[in-house]
Amino acid sequence: MSTTTRSQEEIAARVKALESLLIEQGVMTAQAIDRLVEIYETEVGPQLGAKVVVKAWTDPEFRARLIEDATEACKELGISGLQGEDMVVLENTDTVHNIIVCTLCSCYPWPVLGLPPNWYKDPQYRAAITREPRKVLSETFGFTVGDDVEVRVWDSSSEMRYWVLPQRPVGTEGWSEEQLTELVTRDSMIGVGPVKAAS
Q: Are 163 and 132 part of one and the same domain?
């Protein structure tokens, strides 16, 4: 069994134990837990962020509104809510690559990215990405940013939650929204990974 599989099984076991405890103690019902899961699978999360990214890629006027006021632009697409009250989008370009972090805890734009991954909350990531962003991208995420590209690290807070508008891949002209959406990854909207390559 691989380390990843074992780790996933351990997390699943912990989640199941916590779920059972919450139900036994009367803190939550099974129906409430199912509803929370449904919310994070379908109503908030990276799939909604991908929808926003694709709209920005295909609609220059929307892109301008998104960069000016991400919170209001997302509302145009019916995307808003807790932890998304004050969002700022940072646009990647040929000369600038943006990365987000929360050095104090795990402030994160839930409506467009879902719940933060465990590594985002890890003190090691939070400290290292601000000191040596290129090294962390390369060694932890296997992602290399060219030496001719400036790397900017943005510190999210409870007052301001950042996320990244990745660059549209070359060769995707004429693609449908569905095809483009498949290219957008959660990590590309955090800035620690690329969008999927057009094929």
A: yes
